[in-house]
Amino acid sequence: IVVGATFEVVRQQCLNDHGDLASVHSNYENDFLVALVDSTYPNNDIFIGLEYNGNNWYWSDGTQVDYTNWGSNQPNDESSYPCTILRGLTVTCNGNQGLWQNQDCTTTDSECANRVGGVCKFAATY
Q: Which residue spans adopt a coiled-coil conformation according to this UniProt entry (predicted)?
């Protein structure tokens, strides 16, 4: 988890560590990330790897968008807010706890949370 950084800074840190920003493909993965963030950095939002390219939403790691968990009235104004944050359960603003919201990629804080950071995802090694 990287806290207090923009989307690009977090993503570059993940790439430097041979991972990428987290892609989410199920309720289980979403719930895992929410629990991880809330137990480690309560009252923070995190960037996940879902981006908007002007036509479609896509995962930065190249995997298929086969699951979404948008909050109410989300996404909106994608051209101005092309990145995605996952709202933690301890963030008590606008009722979208545990859900996604599209966000400006250059923000390091949000209207509801202390700070914005991100979570990296790595390939399993055995």
A: none
